[in-house]
Request: fold
Amino acid sequence: MATSASPTLDAAALGRFLDGPHAKVREEVREWLSREGNAPQPDLPLTEHRRQVLAWTKDLASTDRTTMGYPSEYGGRDELGGYIAGFETLAFGDLSLLVKCGVQFGLWGGAVQHLGTKKHHELYLRDIASMALPGCFAMTELGHGSNVQDLRTTATYDPQAQEFVVNTPDDAARKEWIGNAACDGRMAAVFCQLVVREQERGVHALVVPIRGEDGEPAEGVRIEDCGAKLGLDGVDNGRLWFDHVRVPHEALLDRYATVSPEGGYTSPIENPGKRFFTMLGTLIQGRVSVCGAAINAAKVAQVIAVRHALTRRQFGPPDGEEVTLMSYRTHQRRLLIPLAGTYALHFAQEQLVGSMAEAFTGDGADDRQRRKLETSAAALKATGTWHASATIQECREAMGGQGYLKANRLAALKADTDVFTTFEGDNTVLLQLAAKNLLTDFQDEFGELDPLGTFAFVAEQVAGVVAERTAARELLGRIADDLLPGRDDGGDLLERDTQLELFRWREDHIKAGAARRLRGAIEDGGDPFQALIDCQDHVVLVAKAFAARVVMEAFAEAVERCAEEEGKPVLARLCDLYALAEIERDRGWFQEHGRLSSTRSKAVIKAVNTACAELADHSGPLVEALGVPEAALGDARAIEGA
Amino acid sequence: MATSASPTLDAAALGRFLDGPHAKVREEVREWLSREGNAPQPDLPLTEHRRQVLAWTKDLASTDRTTMGYPSEYGGRDELGGYIAGFETLAFGDLSLLVKCGVQFGLWGGAVQHLGTKKHHELYLRDIASMALPGCFAMTELGHGSNVQDLRTTATYDPQAQEFVVNTPDDAARKEWIGNAACDGRMAAVFCQLVVREQERGVHALVVPIRGEDGEPAEGVRIEDCGAKLGLDGVDNGRLWFDHVRVPHEALLDRYATVSPEGGYTSPIENPGKRFFTMLGTLIQGRVSVCGAAINAAKVAQVIAVRHALTRRQFGPPDGEEVTLMSYRTHQRRLLIPLAGTYALHFAQEQLVGSMAEAFTGDGADDRQRRKLETSAAALKATGTWHASATIQECREAMGGQGYLKANRLAALKADTDVFTTFEGDNTVLLQLAAKNLLTDFQDEFGELDPLGTFAFVAEQVAGVVAERTAARELLGRIADDLLPGRDDGGDLLERDTQLELFRWREDHIKAGAARRLRGAIEDGGDPFQALIDCQDHVVLVAKAFAARVVMEAFAEAVERCAEEEGKPVLARLCDLYALAEIERDRGWFQEHGRLSSTRSKAVIKAVNTACAELADHSGPLVEALGVPEAALGDARAIEGA
Reply:
């Protein structure tokens, strides 16, 4: 049972709770962002912006913070969790700097670290960490953004010369959107179709020099600037073409596959599809990082918009003083529901980072662990980045015209985070990846059940379907919900267990339904690809329901963990709001599946309104606890706002 | 019954149907946009952008197109409908130009035309039309954006000098966001609290010179540049302060109120509140214009994204060719549902412009007509601009990285239209204005009903409430819907009358419910302002449901009007999609109110998917028919897309 909100909330104590295990590195990054000259600047022209971001990146590289995820022998601290926490915190500042760091230390450095072997680590990691060797992660091609497995740059092994020949066969195969490529990058991890002894071996990465010390493109390499973008203009994205560029035998990042000097190909992972997905697994870190960054960017917008709503007055009772924007129900809903989402995602992200650090440290994860991580990272990246886009937009509008001035940061937050929904894996594609994993696991679980268990499970499903078809289940539910005294007010929806059960039940039900449809379509002799397209909206829902459940559980767990003096009662109420708002948003589905009667569904709306009204009183400390440095909040005019 | 979609669609014929009564002016503007040098340029620096927009505005002013809404004696053509149609079409191009024209010819010119009298028309209209006299509409203040009635700039009449003294009492009363103010404006219609003989008379507008021929601010006027904005950088927004600036007696725009030279105040409208709202009525044209512009900006994004989806291939069956993005259900849903919305809004806008031209021509509208127009303009402006924001965002994401390049126009479309949701009246505030009018009309209607009619109406409402409370209605509906053969597939939801009835029923039900709640709260002795806040989310729904019904009726009416060879069958199917997608979106509500059983609710989802799959085959001609000039579609790379 959720406790009612307490009258005061200690923002500092709650802030320490939010900072969690990596409080120190978060504090260090905040301190860096608060130094003179390090705050985001609202309107730098592209060239100056790039120059500024490069200078900042070098300054950060002179600490060990950007590389603390690397092994300690190459300048790191073996602390992946801390690295991500620091990276996330950097998202309070200029997001071009964040992305530049992500490209250099996360993607370029990560490719060398995760796909390379000791010789590559020895050669490159230290210089990557110090920014002495800026580099690129050259995977995406113009023709193949999402479907990376079919990219078309080739690396053909020449056993005579003991060299690989890297080549761009046509314009659609040019590397596109490559960060660090337009100006600063000197080398690139280039993803190619490997050809050895005329046999295609699938996608592998090689280290290829692209630019000399003099800044000129290396021989055979053509570089073009992507030019002005919607946002992130401080990042020098570029295009790369390779014209039969020769690199030595050691250029192959050979953790998952080796080519002998004579041209013998061996890999510890036999299945090429599986090998490819294992290599792509290194993208997990990128997705987790982007998710955390998106959540923190949303926090910045929320501090600005909530402060504005608590100060700005407009309209009021006749002959009375004007009231604050936060007094209005529509304003409470538009700001506080996203705020509950940000808190929920914050805790889910904290868990995800913990799991990732565990899986990537020591011997690494087994297949099952890795897949679980991949699933969570994909689903949360999509959920977190869409949340950020929607939240920042809501904050922009809630600020009226003030939100439209560049000086007030909302413009940059909006523009810069916009691409988060489609880079490091397009969100819709990622949701399908997550759903595919979930459905595979579901099938596996099925297979492992004993006959009796299987039977019971199937029987339950069948009963469920029959119940829905005849509407009997709904009728029963309705009678129970609506006619028993005290159940029609939706009061039990404030119980945490009821909330959690609804999230879990929805996930299970959607998953079972999608599995049934897919299997049915294929068993009926249908084309599997067409079956997937026909069920695609359903499949995407599997991942969304999964993510919502994971996020809700993380929030509920955090509330349990939180001490009274850290704000437990208010946090519990905010968790109610997250749960209720999500049930409200999807109340069409819950009614369709007999889990909400119409009366209870209406009660959910009321319960959301009530929670918003209560939380409005705590909204000031709730945003202050998010720990966004003042320097990152832009021009104060938005806040004074008059 | 909707006809099934025909195999071919003549884009040109449908395009002519869409162009409607003002085809000629639309064609002229398209031709202007297609001239060399007139296409939007993706990355102009602020200063050059402003210069370019000024030059374009002058070029347009040299035709009679920008001012065809003015009376013919001052260079116009008395064709308000044609003016709006031309303005809307301009939204295919650079939106800074659109807004600059809106400020000059619509707001500044409109204030003189609608609030001024013959002497003002004689003095200014011709020069405004030719751009010889650039000017501003100085209403908004920093402290009072939405609550204009409480703005605080004063105009005090000095009968000795026969002058008005215009003054900014403090910084919060400075005029903010004023278009044309930072660079080009020479005069401004300044909205002030009028004080005559020490009596406050409410908000009135005066013409005040703000800048000399030399470009320097006029005496007593301070001007500041708002600086860089999220978008619309080609518009020179500025801030204005007035330090006891004296203007002659004739400066008062005196259509609705006069001050005699001696200081006698008279107005044909006695009630100050009503007088104020009559003056604000002149904002209607601005809202209608913005709504049309938003819809057309959405069209540009949709042409680009649909072409991309029909060309770009990604993934496919194993060993098969990759398939187009448009083949995917998720992609169909994200592009075609908004496309149906754009078509629907196009027809609603056409109707609205027609009503407005009628009301503003000749003797003008009576109170009731004017309020009806105000209601529609407010509700549709909010609906249309939010639709544009969401649609352009969806298109941006559906283009992946390509949508993030400035060269491909999505960036500018997104940034420039963003402010549409909060300027010319904040959308949430406008929805409340519309709802207030609707609820007032509802009450009036109530009062006029004969006793028997009233009784019948109330009885129906009560019965409805009782039915919902006991769930009896739902049970009955369920039995009828689910158990009668052939009714559980939702097939009747494809009937136009069923669709229309659902939209109408929802509107009536929400309106009656809100009225009941408000009255109940006030009759119980509650504070009316608090009652309004408590019902605010409900009140906003009144306006949203109203807008959806108006839009749906306009679309249905257009389908009826359309000839077979103009694409009637496809248009009918698109109208189905609009209706079904809206019912799907709000299926939580329809279930809550017993209008959809759970089985039928699920059937709606399937019906949306089916309509999307069918319309995907027509999506090419459907976007070509929107008539966006090629020159406005940005860099072709996005479309080739590989």
About this structure: Chain B touches chain A through 89 residues (CB under 8 Å). Residues 1-6, 447-487, 637-642 of chain B have pLDDT under 50 and may be disordered.
